[in-house]
Amino acid sequence: MSGHIPRVALTGGIASGKSAVAMEFSKFNIPIIDTDEIARDVVSVGKPALKSIVDHFGSKVLTANSALDRKQLREVIFNNPVDKQALESILHPIIRAEQLQRANIAGGPYQIHVIPLLTETGTYSQYDRVLLVDCPREIQLQRLISRDGIVVELAERMIAAQASRERRLAIADDVIDNSGDQQSLSAAVAKLHQKYLKDLANRA
After folding, report:
1. Cβ–Cβ under 8 Å, residues 40 and 53
2. How many CB atoms are closer than 10 A to CB 109?
3. What was the pLDDT predicted at 1?
4. Distance between CA 25 and CA 7 in Å, rounded?
5. CATH number, domain 1-31+108-204, options 3.40.190.10, 3.20.20.450, 3.40.50.300, 3.40.50.920
6. The model's pTM
7. What kind of fold does domain 36-106 have according to CATH?
8. pLDDT digits over 62-86, tens only?
């Protein structure tokens, strides 16, 4: 398709290493469209999405500085599937619109779109390739506990709330195993970058 910039959806379970992989691609000057980053931006103080969240959940999800208390909100939604769905209905359309706007101006031979909940939302058919960052559940659990400073029970609930590893593997075109060291990760990304330049850029 003329003028089409190929898009690779980068996904993976929580604490699997999506940000680390995206950073490796950015070293090759590949545009990164990160929906987690967008999600943070659209709920900053003064943004309409934050007001909608407060209207639904109340001021208990705000810090003393009137910013979003992410830890409090996370605890609320992971204990209540109805609240989780309500939050998603507020944020997903806003995030999607901002994602498309950023993609349209980013350029590049191809783009990496970081989408943690790709499997859950079923939007993978909208991308040219799906790249999964994968690691064993035990490693994922250890990283999550260490990264967020949370108890094992909450970490297990957060992992269980997402699509299973098997479901993510089922939609993946490419898989990076991130159970090794940084050198292994860098090498895997460099190899994929060359593959994408050859295979995807020809479609543009």
Report:
1. no
2. 16
3. 38
4. 13
5. 3.40.50.300
6. 0.87
7. Rossmann fold (3.40.50)
8. 999 999 999 899 888 877 889 989 9
